[in-house]
From TrEMBL:
This is Glycosyl hydrolase family 2. The keyword Ubl conjugation does not apply. Residues 171-279 form the Glycoside hydrolase family 2 catalytic domain. Keywords: Hydrolase, Signal. It comes from Chitinophaga niastensis.
Length: 352
């Protein structure tokens, strides 16, 4: 075979590889996204962490992985007709023990599936504490909202050049293992990118979409928009998500404005965070609207616990006294509803 033929063949194979890579990197068509969404039914659930965990590492590390609490509290959710949970992972738990971490993820999925609850998993997160460590996690600070919650990867991404390689292996390992798992309905690749970091979060946001498209899971990919002032980040999130996810803790009028704006994208909408009682975002005025509009509805918080999310973001209570009005959460740890009328409404909306 001549050198010219070999060269042409090599070029053809290279172009073929590029074409295949390009196809894998494509965002789902709008029709594919709408067809997927139609098969899900109305998604309603919570951002979930067991009440015994102060953060993602306490949830997922082997010594504190609390299946009894997870099972009990997902039972509370199922009892009022919730059918899906949004759950945060953390790369450090995987880095310490990849096989064990994946087994615990599988165990969680088994428990959720037994309650007929699907899962959205979240990879990265720019919210709250920028530094973290393995092992015993800090006790919650009295009366302080999410005092122990940790970012992923946090400020380390700017000081540890090798961390990006670790994160790529992590994302690809999890997606390769669970990328066809029917118990998982969507991958939320990055929670609130730019929260405190601005556009410096864009390179990692771009990379996590690139890594995920290379694996090409059967579930859709998304990263929820949350701050319109971060225009560059928001545009990237909207342009590269198969299904549009978003956060909104505003009053119904303001929430409606977001819905109308995002509808122009022609893709299904899922609200992956809402319900902050002291800010006018409640079950009685938001959840019926989301159902009527066929928008997935995930409120923050299921059971009051170590995350202290009954307290508002910016209103700590130094003595730890229960606030007059809970910020988030539905149940107390013993399964008693915070407000019976809310649970009654949720049951009516879910047909439970």
């Amino acid at each position: 075979m001549s050198k010219r033929i070999i060269t042409l063949l090599s070029l053809f194979l290279l172009l073929l590889q590029i074409a295949c890579t390009h196809r894998k990197s494509d965002v789902w068509s709008k029709q594919k996204a709408r067809s997927w969404y139609a098969r899900q039914g109305w998604l309603r659930g919570c951002d979930f962490i067991p009440s015994t965990a102060v953060n993602q590492l306490e949830m997922w590390q082997a010594t504190t992985f609390d299946t009894a609490t997870i099972n009990r509290e997902l039972g509370y959710a199922a009892s009022i007709g919730l059918n899906s949970m949004r759950v945060y992972l953390h790369h450090l738990a995987w880095e310490i023990d990849p096989a064990g971490f994946k087994q615990r993820v599988n165990t969680y999925l088994d428990i959720a599936d037994q309650h007929h609850i699907s899962t959205i998993f979240v990879f990265f997160d720019d919210c709250w504490n920028s530094q973290y460590h393995a092992g015993a996690q800090p006790a919650p600070r009295t009366g302080v909202h999410n005092s122990g919650w940790i970012q992923d990867p946090g400020s380390a991404i700017y000081t540890n050049a090798a961390l990006t390689d670790t994160l790529e292996r992590y994302v690809k390992d999890i997606l390769t293992t669970f990328g066809k798992d029917p118990r998982i309905i969507l991958w939320d690749l990055y929670n609130e990118p730019g929260n405190g970091y601005g556009n410096t979060s864009l390179p990692l946001l771009e990379k996590v979409f690139q890594w995920s498209r290379q694996v090409n899971p059967t579930q859709p990919l998304s990263a929820g928009v949350w701050e319109v002032r971060l225009e560059k980040l928001s545009d990237f999130q909207l342009d590269h998500s198969d299904v549009i996810t978003y956060h909104n803790y505003m009053t119904p009028e303001k929430h409606r404005e977001w819905i109308d704006r995002l509808r122009t994208r022609g893709r299904p909408l899922i609200c992956t965070e809402y319900m902050a009682r002291t800010r006018g975002s409640r079950f009685d005025n938001i959840m019926p609207m989301l159902k009527m509009e066929n928008i997935g509805a995930y409120n923050w918080g299921l059971v009051a616990g170590k995350t202290n999310t009954i307290y508002a973001w910016d209103t700590p209570i130094a003595d730890g006294k229960e606030p007059a009005l809970w910020f988030h959460d539905i149940f107390r740890a013993d399964g008693t509803p915070y407000r019976e009328e809310e649970v009654t409404l949720i049951k009516q909306l879910t047909g439970k």
